[in-house]
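Re-run requested by the PI after the first attempt was lost when the workstation crashed. Everything re-entered from the original request form. Ligand of interest: protoporphyrin IX containing FE.
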Amino acid sequence: MLFTPAFFEDPYPAYRALREAGPLHYSTEFFDGAWVLTGHADVTAALRDPRLSARRTGGWVNHIDDDAAQALSPFQHLFARALLFLDAPDHTRLRQALMPAFRPGALGALQATIQAEVDALLDAIDPHQPWDAMAQLAVPLPARVMACWLGVPAAQEADFMRWSDDIAAFIGHQQPTLALGQRAQRGTLAMVAMFRRLLEQRRAHGPATDGSGGLLELMLQAQSDGAIVSEDELLAQCAMMLFAGHETTRHVLGNGLHALLSTPGAWATLQQSPELMSAAVRELLRYDSPVQYTGRRVAETFTLHGQTLQRGDLLITLLGAANRDPSVYTEPDTLRLDRREAMHVSFGSGPHVCIGAALTTLEAEVALTSVLARWPQLALAPTAPKRVHNAVYRGFEQLPLVVRV
Ligand code: HEM
């Protein structure tokens, strides 16, 4: 059984049991029922399969009831226009317009911002006391980076983090309720109102003089060039970027620190061999993925592993399970910082592969390098960490750490 308290602590035994029972399952634990894939090759192929559509926002609301679909239509109207939930040709047009901001070369400009934010957050920590890696580092860092990149004032930070958490609680739920949907909708509409004001100010007064707002500028340019075709489409990308850019990255930092500090010798190895950092971040993403699954709608009936997938069915690709596939990774349940096997699927695969992957990797590398340099004696605190109970977004609510003396 999935989604029990024990599952949220450690979902990997349940994934293993599913995988060992066969490559494709029908599960009633997701929405009104969905097909579930667990293998690395199957998941990768599904995410590249043009018979499967990314247009799936209707499933969040339609499974509740007709009234919910009506009540949540503003929310759905917005997210149905976001890059993640579009197919070609709209997806291709938008992705091409946004991609230049996400290339590693372009992200170089953000590196100094990331380092400055990491340093400020670490300076504020008293290492003589237990400290919470989530509240004091992993949550605020990506929020500040995304806010700066999108030109959102620091004063709005607490608001957008709350709105964003409400969105994650809804879209990360395997069987969302109307109440969760209404909270997510309130958060989304508040976020959209904030971006409307920012765009008005930007159009009236021109770009920020402090260099912030680079991603917003790129999107405005894309709108002038006709690659973003409406104000709603622009607002959808702004809201989605702000949400996707920090709800996930916080968990690569939290899960990563937890894995490094709970695996004997891992923290010391990374200290002695800092050249392992890129491979280590890749392995941390594989070992405990911040995004555990994504979904697709069957656009064209077809047969897979002897089962007929009907047009309209939902297919869940369990990224967290694919990352532990023993046919691809030797000893998949072991963290190996120098692992050089197939690429994990934590960022997805195919046309929708995470556009923010290089940014997240940069944030994780800068943050972990800085923490390692400051506190070689870092350890998990005796107080147990607290996991977030969310089916999609896997991470910690609290991760208490101490610096041993
Ligand atoms: C640990 C961090 C992250 C993880 C694990 C992650 C994971 C993913 C995954 C699995 C997908 C593909 C979903 C699908 O195919 O249905 C995706 C897409 C996406 N991600 Fe990320 N993401 C992360 C960070 C970020 C960041 C930092 C940003 C933005 C700054 C971002 C923005 C997006 C966007 C816009 C898409 C949609 C791309 C498209 O549809 O073409 N993500 N992400």
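Saved to the shared folder this time. The first helix runs from residue 5 to 9.
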